[in-house]
Amino acid sequence: MHNLKEEKRVLRFTYLLTVILFVNVTIISPTFDKVSLVMGGMMCGLLGYSHFIIRKFYPDGDKYILLFSNLLAVIGIAMLSRLDIPISGGAFIEEGTRTFLAAKQIIFFTIGIAAFIMVVVILPDLKSFSNYKYVYLVITIVFMSMGTLLGQTIGGAKNWVSIAGFTFQPSEFGKITLVAYLASALKDYGQVPSYVRKLFNKANSKLESKKEDIKQLQENNVENKETVKDEEVKSEEIKKEKAKNRNLSINNILSLAEPAAVVAICLMFMLLQTDLGSALIFFGISVTMLYIATSKKKYVLISLGLFVIGAVAGYFLFGHVRVRVMIWKDPWKYGYNEGLQLVQGLISLSEGGVFGTGLGLGYPKFVPVVTTDFIFSAICEEMGILTGIAVMLIYFLLFYRCIRAAIYVKDKFSRLLAVGYSTMIASQALVIIGGVTGAIPLTGITLPLVSYGGSSLLITYFSLGIIQKISEEGNRDE
After folding, report:
1. Contact at 8 Å (CB) between 448 and 405?
2. Helix, strand and coil in the chain, % to nearest 5
3. Counting beta carbons within 10 angstroms of the beta carbon of residue 44, is it exposed (0 to 12), middle (13 to 18) or buried (19 or more)?
4. What is residue 36's three-state secondary structure?
5. What is the CA radius of gyration of the chain?
6. DSSP codes, 86-136
7. Which of 446, 455, 418, 366 lies closest to 72 in space, CA to CA?
8. For the whole prediction, is pTM greater than 0.85?
9. Is the separation of the CB atoms in 425 and 142 below 8 Å?
């Protein structure tokens, strides 16, 4: 009962925030904007309906996952609605330029909510899905390679594919199956696939035959063979114990050979597409899942070392990566050309101050690609740094609730899935906010649930639906 009261409190706050934001957007419009009022009403209806369905029919799961994700979506759609209005600094600036991105985003939001609910309703126990490892592998490679083979270059990265008029980033869909593949592979840590074992035995047999030849030559040169034989008998138990530990260690390493190769291939495709943001996200997902599955810090350190080597190689091989690093080191030097986007974003961040200029009173449209990469700077300019911090706190709370689902579930595959999808959302938010604020080199990815982007919104809600399902399993296990 206490949880229900807290949930209703968060839901009421979300309703209030929705009403305030969309009424403000309606008021600041040069003409009374009925579209924004309708969108606000639709948002309230979708928020209430989705919470009612999950609370009524699936009470075991963690309802805060849906509540926090919807809260972020409300802020994003409201900001998109404001950016669609031709106003800067409180003055009407242009006419006939509305793109209705917020209306399009609400359509994807509705589909995303439906996907979230459908995942919870339709999917059976997730344990059975761990048997489709190689299906996930094939789909992952297909999606990751599509940008390289069929993609078109936008913003310096060759990661957009257009099919039948629908433009999307294949790597967004590849993230889903990559996490599923890694979860199904890493749950069997220590168990070596048969084909990997055969390849290892074949290579090892050649090495052992050479060792036997060397040993035979050494024995022929020993005069007192009886003494040598006695020493071998005494040390036999020690040798067996060492061999057992060595075999166990070899099995652990061999079991990671396949997932390591798959991740390396995915990162290679991202480098070929000069998609630095996706490469960072895939690396974060892989290392986190690897540590959760193995509890070995040395694997994390080795992965970090290999990633640094790959990053340095990418810096020298791809000019686009060098430009991003150059802008990051001194954005003001290139503020009128390559660094224009970052410089305008930083000015926008500082312009709003603590409480913001107010909706419609700032100049967020001076920032290129403000509806996707730089929507965080627009939020901070017109709603204030406090709102920006609040957005980051909501991401933290969402990540916490998602990881909480992983802690309570007993099935290892489900736990790894929850960790992977949680890390995917958290790392994406950290990478783009870090890029916008100048903490790391800028990458062209969206702020999950907030930025404009249909495929990103759908993928995020689908992932959260799976985590919601896992949270139900965990609560039933308790």
Report:
1. no
2. 75, 5, 20
3. middle
4. helix
5. 27
6. -EETTEE--SS----HHHHHHHHHHHHHHHHHHHHHH---GGGGGG-HHHH
7. 446
8. yes
9. no
Query: Distance between CA 458 and CA 55 in Å, rounded?
Result: 22
Residues 74 and 450: their CA atoms lie apart, in Å, by 8
Q: Angle at the Cα of 293 (from 170 to 65), degrees rounded to 5?
A: 60
The Cα–Cα gap between 442 and 334 comes to 14
**Cα 59 from chain centroid?**
27
Per-residue pLDDT tens for 387-442?
Answer: 999 999 999 999 999 999 888 888 889 999 999 999 999 999 999 999 898 888 88
Residue 452 is given by DSSP the state S
Q: Which residues contact 166 (CB under 8 A, 6 or more apart)?
A: none
Calpha distance 129→281 (Å, rounded): 24
Report the C-alpha gap between 255 and 191 in whole angstroms: 6
Q: State the DSSP H helix or E strand holding residue 405, giving kind and residue range, or none if neither.
A: helix 385-408
User: What does the angle CA 80 – CA 84 – CA 86 come to, to the nearest 5 degrees?
Assistant: 145
Identify the CA nearest to 431 among candidates 283, 301, 330, 223: 283
Produce one character per residue of 258-292: b if its CB has 16 or more CB atoms within 10 Å, e if not: bbbebbeebbbbbbbbbbbbbbbbbbbbbbbbbeb
Q: Which residues have C-beta within 8 Å of that of residue 116, sequence separation ≥ 6? A: 50, 66, 461, 462, 464, 465, 468
As a whole number of angstroms, the distance between CA 422 and CA 416 comes to 10
Q: Distance (Å, rounded) from C-alpha 257 to C-alpha 251?
A: 10
Contacts of 271 by beta carbon, 8 Å cutoff, 6+ apart? 279, 310, 314, 317, 318
Q: Phi/psi class of residue 384: alpha, beta or left (left: φ > 0; alpha: ψ in -120 to 50)?
A: left
Single out the residue of 228, 306, 236 nearest to residue 267, CA to CA.
Answer: 306
Tell me how far apart the alpha carbons of residues 362 and 247 are, in angstroms, rounded to a whole number. 64
Q: CA-CA distance, 471 to 115, in Å (whole number)?
A: 17
Summarize pLDDT for 371-386 with one digit per residue, the tens.
888 899 999 999 999 9
Q: Cα angle at 437 between 347 and 85, to 5 degrees? A: 55
